[in-house]
């Protein structure tokens, strides 16, 4: 998580305690911090309704939240999605330099307990189980029933927005529900790192250790963050061992498999691999629709099935986006006093899909796929058949078909004159592989994200 995210999320935590949940989920949940330079915070909102609503109705509250978190007034600027212009050196870049240069802002008060409590947002009851996540879900439930005994550590792997945080929170919540005295702590690896740095800086290491070692359950989200950070890894290793040896439960989530985590010490990697590793795959359309139904119900809205199907077909890889889009449709309908219909959904999604998809062109896909697999574009266009080239080529064809309006024959042409049946075959091949092979679907997600970033 980036600095501005940490800052904004802390503000949102504050906001959550002050506004009704419906208002929070409509107006605040879809926002995202994009930049912070210690004077101005730039927040991205889905459209101008949001900007206006936040400015007109919530500016005082947001100022109060920022004051609470940062300890001083911070100007907030809203931008619409995709409007961020690049400026020379963002605070974010400052933060991503080595850990000694860790964020200098202090979160005034850090929460030490499980953030959203048992009746909070993420629990097992509102986690929709489908074929893509049933194993991760079952493992999470087993751990929640039998902490420290079932699988230790439990390592949950998936791409972005597929439910890792949700499951980690659900485990924590369920354990606390059974045993309110359990010492459960949920935090992100970034928060762990910041905590460590602050403790080192202020000579408070004994305090740091006494915070983690007596826990019964430690849930660390996005553990990939500690890659390349030696001191954090070392301290995490000790924390892990202390807990593990006394049969305390550790649950980790990551956006990559332990073996794909570079810059991580071998001894830690082998700890990560020593329990159960489970993954969440990309959801199929049925699961996506079931999730949408669940979310609509939660917001007390009736969303027709064709609208859910439409959203599910438009959002390929990310449940967070799925939900974001649904909320956008709900907000739009309530603004314009219209009923939610396929027509309305198309109207709202037009901008969204356009924004998302305009980045995708066949040449761009070729370029990104080639660089992802350390190949040349010419290799992808060639007729070489070795697997290290043919698989990336098939992936590039798949993406060209899925994400651009280009026809099959035209795609074939842009791949050095291949037949359209080859393109179709590749498309089907990859569409099948995605369901079975998480490594491929993960590569594809990474490439998609890179293309979206431009
Ligand atoms: P990750 O941590 O993997 O990036 P999150 O756990 O934050 O993803 O999930 C993103 C959003 O999608 C959250 O709002 C979460 O509640 C929702 N979500 C993910 N999987 C499911 C599911 N199976 N059922 C219901 N909601 C889900
Ligand atoms: Mg997460």
Short recap of the structure:
It is built from 21 helices and eight strands. With 454 residues, the protein is of the alpha/beta class. Adenosine-5'-diphosphate is lined by residues 122, 126-128, 133, 158, 160-166, 291, 294, 319-320, 323.
Keywords:
single chain; 454 residues; GMP Synthetase, Chain A, domain 3; 4 domains; 5-stranded parallel β-sheet; Rossmann fold; Helicase, Ruva Protein, domain 3; binds adenosine-5'-diphosphate; alpha/beta; globular; 3-stranded mixed β-sheet; binds magnesium ion
Plain-language structure description:
- This protein is 56% helix and 9% strand.
- It is an alpha/beta fold.
- It has a five-stranded parallel sheet, with helices on both faces.
- Strand 6, helix 10 and strand 7 form a beta-alpha-beta unit.
- Helix 12 packs across helix 14, helix 16 runs antiparallel to helix 18 and helix 20 packs across helix 21.
- It binds adenosine-5'-diphosphate (ADP) and magnesium ion.
